Amino acid sequence: QVQLVESGGGLVQAGGSLRLSCAASGRIFSNYRMGWFRQAPGKEREFVAAISWSGDNTNYAGSVKGRFTISRDNAQNTVYLQMNSLKPEDTAIYYCAVADGRWTTIVANEYNYWGQGTQVTVSS
Q1: CA–CA distance, 73 with 64 (Å, rounded to integer)
Q2: Ramachandran quadrant class, 75 (left: phi over 0; alpha: psi -120 to 50; beta: rest)
Q3: What is the overall mean pLDDT for the chain?
Q4: What is the rounded CA–CA span in Å between residue 19 and residue 84?
Q5: Is the pLDDT of residue 100 over 80?
Q6: Once rounded to an integer, what is the mean pLDDT over residues 62-85?
């Protein structure tokens, strides 16, 4: 089993920044890719960003590209999501996820484990 614990969510004004962290523990895969998804009230969960095992490859949803940056520290088994220029439409519960394998994936079903989520609220 792999445990994922997110932190860093909160309330911020539009235009502000937040940095989410997700620490992985337990029986982590030897090579694993990680991603962030979000779910707003009344909406389906959607892909936000993904990063490969090495950290060299990343993918972003069009709605966050240029504003969000995903990164990872394999020594700490942690993935980060730096969110800048936040908008009210970024309000959601943000989930991190881990998948076996090296390369990025934007497909939620390919992720094996999920965190409990952290709330991000952006006020206008």
Answers
A1: 21
A2: alpha
A3: 95
A4: 9
A5: yes
A6: 96
Work out whether strand 2-7 and strand 18-26 pair parallel, antiparallel, or are unpaired.
Answer: antiparallel
Q: How many CA atoms lie within 13 A of 42 on its CB side?
A: 1
Instruction: From 43, 83, 54, 78, select the one nearest 66 (Cα to Cα).
Output: 83
Residue 121 to residue 86: CA distance in whole angstroms = 9
- Looking at residue 69, what is its pLDDT? 98
- Structural contact between residues 117 and 94, judged by C-beta atoms closer than 8 angstroms: yes
Closest among 113, 69, 90, 76 to 16, alpha carbons compared: 90
Nearest-angstrom CA–CA distance, 115 and 99: 12
pLDDT at 1 over 80: yes
Does residue 34 contact residue 51 with C-beta atoms inside 8 Å? yes
